[in-house]
Amino acid sequence: MTSNSWQFTRRFVSVSWGSMSDAYQQLIAELSRARRVLVTTHVRPDGDALGTSAALVMALRRKKIEAEVLLLSHLPSKYAFIFSDNQITHHDAEKGWPAGLDLNGFDALLVADTGTWSQLPGLREHVEKWNKPKLVLDHHLTQEDWADAKLVVTEAAAAGEIAAELMDQWNIELDGPIAAALFLAIASDTGWFQFSNTRPYTLRLAARLIEHGVDTDRMYQLLYQNERAERLALQTRALQSLELMLDGRLAVMRVRKGDFDQTGANVPDTENLINMPLQVRTVEVSLLMVEPRDDGPIRISLRSKGQVDVARFAEQFGGGGHARAAGLKLGVPFDEAHDRVVLAMTQEMLTS
Ligand SMILES: [Mn+2]
Question: Which of 277, 348, 267 is nearest to 313 (CA)?
Answer without folding.
Answer: 348
